[in-house]
Amino acid sequence: MMKNISVFLFLFFYVFTFSQSKVLVNNNLNIVEDSLKRQKIIENLSQFILDKNIENENLRIINPKNKLETWLFLDELRKLQNSKIFTTQYNLMYEIISAEVSDKNNYIVYLNCYFKDKETKHSVANIQISVQEINNQHLLSSTIKNNLNNWKSKSIENYTFYFEKNIDEKKMKDFISKNNQLSLNLKEQKLPTTVYCADGILKANKLLGIDYKTDESDAGNFF
C-alpha cells in the first residue's frame, strides 16, 4: 500500500552538504560474528551511503518497510555530498564506530561523519543506519522507527501524526484541511499519510538518523 509522508517544520532552515567521501571501516562491526556476513553488510553500507548514480527507487538494498522515510534519509545524504567546501577543500569520511543487535537478524550501525583540517579531526554528524537480514539479504533503512519510541501519535481520518511532546491542534487541523483540498483539486484519492512534527530541520534529520554536530569549532560550523 502506498502512503504519503511529510515532515512538519516550525523553523526556516539551511542545510550544509559534502562529497568526495569514502567509508572507513574498523573493528567495531565485530558484533557480526560471521565474517562473510560482516563483509556483505560493509559492502551494502558503502553502496547505500556513497552510490549517487542510482536513484532511490532503484536501490535494491533498501528495506521496503521504511522505504519513504529512507528515501528522505538518502536525499539528505545526497545533499551532503554536493557541498562546494567538501568538493574543493576537504574530504568527508565515514567511519563505523559501533553497532548493536536488536535481535538475531537486526542491527543498528553507528557511523561518525567527519573531515580533517590538517591534523585536526572535525565531526560533522553522527549517523545511524538500520540493517535487517531478510532471506539472506541485508536490507538497509533509516532508523526513524526506533527513534519514535518515546514519541506520541494521533490518528485522524487517513493521517497519523507523530510528535515528541505536544501538538498544536489548530495547525494539525489546518494541515489536514489544506491537504484534503489539494487532493480534491488534483482528483487524487486519499492515501494513508504519516506526518512527523519536528521542531526544526536539525531535529527532523536526527529523527531520520542524521545527528548534525553544531558545537564544533568555527572550521566545522557551516550554518
Overview of this protein structure:
By secondary structure, the protein is an alpha/beta fold. It has helices at residues 35-50, 67-80, 84-88, 144-147, 169-185, 201-208; strands at 4-9, 22-24, 92-103, 106-117, 120-134, 137-141, 152-156, 159-163, 193-198, 210-212. The strands form 2 sheets. Strands 2, 3, 4, 5, 6 and 10 form a 6-stranded mixed β-sheet that branches. It has a 4-stranded mixed β-sheet with strand order 1-9-8-7. Strand 8, helix 5 (169-185) and strand 9 (193-198) form a beta-alpha-beta unit. The chain is globular. 24% of the residues are buried.
Poorly predicted regions: 8-20, 216-223
Number of strands: 10
Overall 3D geometry?
globular
**Helix and strand run:** EEHHHEEEEHEEHEHE
Tally of alpha and pi helices? 6
Alpha carbon gyration radius: 19 Å
Q: Which structural class matches the secondary elements? A: alpha/beta
Q: Could you tell me the mean pLDDT?
A: 81
Largest sheet: 6 strands, mixed
Helix content: 25-40%
Q: Estimate what percentage of residues fall within beta strands.
A: 25-35%
